[in-house]
TrEMBL record:
Record-given protein name: L-ribulose-5-phosphate 4-epimerase
Domain of life where this protein originates: Bacteria
UniProt family annotation: Belongs to the aldolase class II family. AraD/FucA subfamily.
KW Isomerase (keyword) present: yes
UniProt-listed PANTHER family: FUCULOSE PHOSPHATE ALDOLASE, L-RIBULOSE-5-PHOSPHATE 4-EPIMERASE SGBE
Required cofactor names: Zn(2+)
Gene Ontology MF terms: L-ribulose-phosphate 4-epimerase activity
Organism field: Isoptericola halotolerans
Domain Class II aldolase/adducin N-terminal: 22-208
Swiss-Prot/TrEMBL keywords: Isomerase, Metal-binding, Zinc
Catalytic activity: L-ribulose 5-phosphate = D-xylulose 5-phosphate
């Protein structure tokens, strides 16, 4: 045992980290497949829980390195960071969004996966700083209400992470539109966060089209609640 716990993956997390690297690499392929990203934009991360650290401070996250082409994504290329965003393992610098992902994991213990994209329609709502109103049953199912807008925040410190947490904590939504930036989504694991990113873009597109045709009809709160409860109980994470 060495005295460098934050500079290498602890032996008891080796298998979990390697599994997460494969899963996160595979899930990155979903972003271009669903046309959520261009060039190297976008990232998926997953938390690796350290069961020897009940307060979560020993947890790690696996994420894509900065500037890596989607054609070059492999499990081995993924990087590992601690929940302060420090690199623990990897040959490349972590994604420039790592601090935001790390802040979410550090402050929302229930979150196991985070996804960020600049998907076109969700980002268009973010550019207007306008929440997506809950006018579709699939929105009630997945997000339990409107998709909210988070504050304008500059990349480079933890202000994006803070804005995500302040907006989503206590909200049923798994997606937040960071103003003038784009969507961040969360889930119990990385796959659930990817699903939320795909559905966020889909509802952003459908509601945008609806708005071009007239005023979308709101769904009564009691129906939103019933749809959300049913969907989460039947299909939701356990
Ligand atoms: Zn971004």
């Amino acid at each position: 045992m060495t005295n460098t716990p934050i500079t290498e993956v602890p032996a008891h997390l080796r298998a979990a980290v390697d599994a997460a690297k494969q899963k996160v690499a595979d899930l990155h392929a979903e972003l271009p497949r669903w046309e959520l990203v261009v060039w190297t934009a976008g990232n998926v991360s997953e938390r690796v829980r350290d069961d020897r650290s009940p307060d979560g401070t020993g947890d790690l996250l696996v994420i894509k390195p900065s500037g890596l082409s989607y054609d070059d994504i492999t499990a081995e290329a993924m990087v590992v960071c601690d929940l302060e965003g420090n690199l623990v393992e990897g040959d490349r610098a972590p994604s420039s969004d790592t601090a935001a992902h790390a802040y979410v994991y550090a402050h929302m213990p229930e979150v196991g996966g985070v996804v960020h994209t600049h998907s076109t329609y969700a980002t268009a709502w973010a550019a207007r700083g306008e929440e997506i109103p809950c006018v579709l049953t699939m929105m009630a199912d997945e997000f339990g209400g409107p998709v909210p807008v988070g504050p304008f925040a500059i990349i480079g410190d933890d202000s994006i992470g803070r804005g995500i947490v302040e907006t989503l904590r206590g909200s049923r939504s798994k997606a937040v539109l960071m103003q003038n930036h784009g969507p961040f989504t969360i889930g119990g694991d990385a796959k659930a966060a990817v699903k939320a990113a795909v559905l966020c873009e889909e509802v952003a597109r459908a509601v945008h089209v609806s708005c071009q045709l007239g005023e979308p009809l709101p769904i009564a709160q009691e129906h939103v609640d019933a749809l959300y409860d049913r969907y989460q109980n039947v299909y939701g994470q356990r």
